[in-house]
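Hi L.,

You mentioned the student needs an example of a multi-chain input paired with its predicted structure. This one should do, with 700 residues in total across all chains.
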Amino acid sequence: MDTETLIIESAERIFSDHVDKALLDKCEQGAFAEALWQQIVDQGFHLLGSPDSGTEAADLFAFLKICGRFAVPLPMAEVLLANRWMAAKDSVLRSIGIQHNGGVIDIAWSSHAEWILAVSPDSRIVELHPGQAAQEGLANLAGEPRGSIAPPALVQGMLEVEDAPYAQLALARTCLMAGTLQAVLDLGLQFASERRQFGRTISKFQAIQHSLAVVAAEVAAAQRAADAGIDALSSERFLYEVAAAKARVGEAVGIVAEQVHQVHGAMGFTYEHRLHHFTRRLWAWRDEWGSEFYWQQILGQQFAALGADRAWDFIATKG
Amino acid sequence: MFQFDRVALSDETQDLRAQVRAFIDENRAYLPRPNSDFVTGHDPEFSQKLGERGWIGMTWPAQYGGGERSNFERLVVTEELLSAGAPVSAHWIADRQSGPLLLRFGTPEQRQRYLPGIIRGERFFSIGMSEPDTGSDLASVRTSATAEGDAYRINGTKVWTTDAHRNHFIICLVRTAAQTENRHAGLSQIIVDLKNDGVKIRPIRNMAGGEDFNEVVFEDVLVPKNRIVGEPGNGWQQVTSELAYERSGPERFLSAYRVFAELIRLCGDSPAPHQAAAIGRLAGHFMTLRRMSLSVAGMLEAGKDVVVEAALVKELGNNFEKLVPEVARLAVPDIAHTDAAALGLFRQTFDETMLLSPSFTLRGGTREILRGVIARSLGLR
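Structure written out for the whole complex:
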């Protein structure tokens, strides 16, 4: 068995034991998933992809797909990327936000972070900030905590990252979404095969079958797009492959969330049902670290620069 | 759930890509088509040139003249030709599905008789599936083949038969035994020479003004018994596997490629933000669909059954082909009131693709049938 399969299997085991509706509800109320974090640290998952960890960056992103599938209520994308960039070996919680007018905004789980890294869309230089300066208070559409550091933020160091850091975060969101999309498809299939109306399960109705077929196709495309982003790490195409992946997966989110909610009817609109923990994350993540429009522009400018007659070559060069 | 594995093309395969591009460059006179749709250019001369290069029947055994090359190499050739808008429809069906069908189910005599001509780009095939009363419900076909001594007597009508008026042969799905409880039983596939007595072909004009598909009427057409493909009665299984070839290829998302290319040309090297986003949106779809189609080639190469994956790629690809003109028209300035000359080739490719677009989700299996195939694999039916 290869490393990636081992990681995936043990992550699946831990998440199925520890991540459930009750935990997701509690975390949305402001609790920190302490026991889950401890499990992650014990397994060394928080250092996946870090130098000296014996794992690759690709393992990190494959792990994020699993995190997405379980809606893991911790800032795993930020933790993993920050640890990788800082070559961390410890179990300190590091998070990431965006540089903004001399401050830092949209820091995931800011009040739990001992270090905060701040990135900007067009720079490879990442700023380091002490976590204590951060404030809590905001949350994204999924209720995941987002804090900030008011300007002027004290920069305690800088580091340079090889693959564009903003794009790495976008790829991280892409992988999380790819995993969550799979979970949402599974929820839709399960609900359709259990819910009975007109004397039979609603899965027997062609309208429902076709909705879920569309969802399955979008989910398949999302997986392939995300994998292409992972494969482009450390290559000159990285920015553009991430652009294609984040935009394509973001488009899938709109279709999948809409269809699977419709299949669930009013049940899926209740807070009591777990579906919203997944769909709200999808809606939040497709906007974070660049929406479809942002990344489509980046990719479109690249194609415009190539010109009509070299466009196909760019599409077909990489398997 | 559905696994579309990563595929890395070998250097050899990429070299082949360069050869195809050089060939296209040398044969610019045959190009460009306004559209990259595979039904828009029937050119026997061009097909023969491809045959000379060994680019038809590429994966087939050498004993019939085939190239014994991989499905990846075949994909590279087909995607290069389509994206350039090359006129490939003459040999397309024979190369894509008639040949593979004969290799899988045909007799040695049939292979010897038909494959070398296909490979040379000289013998072209059509598909006889739909009928006036048989569309998506393919098992309801009524065209009959009745055994009479050494021959079958064929009566019935096929419709939407692409290029029947230009091609040499048709492989028809016919009823060789009366319908029973099992609707899929009693069906067979048979090769008919389109020049046979009793075959009447009438082109049907489509809404784009083209005459590519036809009505083909069979009146007491006598065909030697040895033209049956595979076991009599096994037609349904054969057709199902044949349709996977028909559904999985890059033609299922490249029909609108020229619109995309001309959109890039029209927007120039400093597009407005909404133009860049439109181009980028389409580009991201192309990149993903192409990789999925490469994964399917990998599954074919490994001898796997691709029925469901083919349906998925066709579903996504067809939706996308229809999205291309929708996105493109809103990205160009005032499409209705701009001088045609200023819009260049964009106008022509856009118009043709727009008019052909209703067919994208019909041919090769309707969207509704494909979604049914996907739903079945999800355990919903």
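You could point out the following to them. The mean pLDDT of chain A is 96. The first strand of chain A starts at residue 94 and ends at 100.

Best wishes,
N.
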